[in-house]
TrEMBL record:
Stretches assigned to the PorZ N-terminal beta-propeller domain: 49-194
UniProt protein name: PorZ N-terminal beta-propeller domain-containing protein
Annotated SUPFAM superfamilies: NHL repeat (SSF101898)
InterPro entries, alphabetized: PorZ_N, WD40/YVTN_repeat-like_dom_sf
Organism name: Chryseobacterium defluvii
Gene3D superfamilies: 2.60.40.4070, YVTN repeat-like/Quinoprotein amine dehydrogenase
Amino acid sequence: MKKFSIISLGILTSLQWVNAQVISSRKWTDLFSYNNVLAMKEDNGRIVAATENGIFYYTISTGEITKLSKANGLHDVKISAFDYNPQTKIGLVGYYNGSMDVITPEGVTYIVDIPIATGYNASKKINHISITGDKAVVSVGYGVSIFDLKKKEFGDSAFFMTGGVYAASNEATIMGNKVYSVTDTGFKSHEMNTTFPVYSTWTTEMPGTFKHIDSESVLTFSSATAAYFYNNGTATPLPQTYIGVRDVVVNTNNIIVTDQNRIYTYNTNGVGNSTVSLGEECNTATTINGKVYGGTILSGIKDESNNTFKPDGPYFNYSYKINLYDNNQLYVSSGGREGRFNQPLANAKRPGFYYFDGMQWIYPSYFINNPGKVFNVLDVVANPSDNSEVFFTNYTFSPEHGIHKMKYNASTKDFDFVNYYDLGTPSVYYSRPVGLTYDDKNNLFASISFVQSGTAGIAVYDRATDNFLVKNTNFSTAVQKLIFHENMFWVPLPRTSSFLAYDFKNTPNNISDDTVYTLSMSNGFAGNSNGTLSVALDKAGDAWIGTDSGLRILTNAVSAIKGPDAEVTPIVIEQNGLGEELFRDSQILQIEVDAGDHKWVSVDGGGVYYLSSDGQQTIKHFTKENSPLPTNSITDIKVDRKTGKVYFVSYDGIVTYQGDVADVTSNFGNVLVYPNPVVYSNFKGKVTIRGLAEKTNIRIADAAGNVVHSAVARGGYYEWDLNNQRGKRVASGIYFLLMTNEDGSDKATAKIAVVN
């Protein structure tokens, strides 16, 4: 009989990228959550654990923990399956989109066969992976596939199709020369032979709905409420009725069944050994030297003594906005909006906010202890004059809508609830606060959607009365977070093709004299725009306004918006000799300006662009495909101007990038040249020079004093392509950098060694 494989069926093309997609570097780090452990495997006293966005390794004897994520080797996020062979030191990671990573001591190989498959168009999520020797059986929505870990390619596949309908393999395992799979219609098996791909030749060992399976010396599988010890064709129930089986694991000495609330261990003859409760729900569990370790949903790895082990990180990956403070403190909100920025984003976890105190991540017990309350936190800020005082906005239809005040208790490392402000509105439909911002005198302002039906407002916190005073702008129905600049607040309006500037006349507690200035379609927004989403003010005082249909610039914004002829204009760049509008028809989610006046721009579905100060040059373009970004829709960007570190926030987690621009002034900082030396065989890119003045005159000379390159750098850094004035690469040797700032009052020197 003809041997069928995935390839011969035309489903997959057996394409693999062997370290070809190098998307991580030392400049990137992750701020992922490692709480939700999906799978674990022991390797000689070390536990290898898979979580939603990464792998971590915990050495039991030393307590050492290391991690592997998209920031330092993996190629994707949203892990859905994992297994590891301690004998060969090879692991296999499966993702929700169907791609896989093969982890070996030599590196990581990206496998993209399933995502690019055209013959099967339903869910391509990797449901489960089980490794036996050098082979793995991969469970997907279409059935099972055999993957050769040595060759890093797929072999035979069995498509579980009856009457034109695919049946998923929930999990599968290899034992001997046979594959066993659990499905919603039965516990099935087949020899790995020529008829393996033919579903009609598979044997149903036991009818029913089964979810989990594992094997080593013995085989065990389970339904939701029962687990079975399988031997010589006979399925014997283990002596327990379960509430809801989460996983079954077989290792050398034990069978481990993870139930909803308890972990049951049996010997390999199916005789019960122990029952352990870790005080919280687990996804999986294993035993090492007679001790139970649980893979929890919220606490990483947990042992029987309630000790937890995991890399530090936020409570969940789900993130929306971030605010930075001194001493490396971070506040992350986890809410969101949809439906033209009207409806609260559907988010079952409702996690509230996360806090990093400079040393560790802290999650307020307030959100854990109030499971009945609804939280959709769009923003959280700390009082600049008292960082322990924290306010957050809760954008919901629930009774918990409004603004909440908390107090951080450093001794308990927790937050105490202080007060709640419903903003004085008569209905839960109204008063949905969005963003919070302090002015330069530490007065707190809030932007509010639906102060009255069809209008939005601005509120100011009156500390004397401990209440918020609300100003109805009589404009729009929705707002974004306020940006403070030059004694005014600048507010995008996401449901109308308009923009608002709010002048509170430096009298925050007197809302009667405030003035609202607006821009609308007649001021130059695109005809197909339905809203403004983001804004940033640069060093020149220009407002960069992101809309859902492109980018607009309001030059000299403070005076322009007060005048009768304010006009926003697009940036026009040259493409193939023709002028073209930058980001035309793109939804601009966020804009951030760094210390060198360069712009970071997040485009919905398009990743992040790093632009020159005037927007004419794209310096970098990061996407999910070419960088550790977890998604191409980044909801927030923040730059730490002192360090140059850039934070990228998304619903799939947070990553950071160490930028080259930090604390730029008119004088030089700590000038650094890298890489140095430049060895052509190891590096073929541009040499970066950072720590420069805001405007720097650069001359590069060879050892004989001949100037081979000159330039004017702006924004605190420069990249040299190692070409001379004629556009040809310079010869090997030592080159001297002679640099002065704009007025010649400061200078700096450096050397570069070039080896061709």
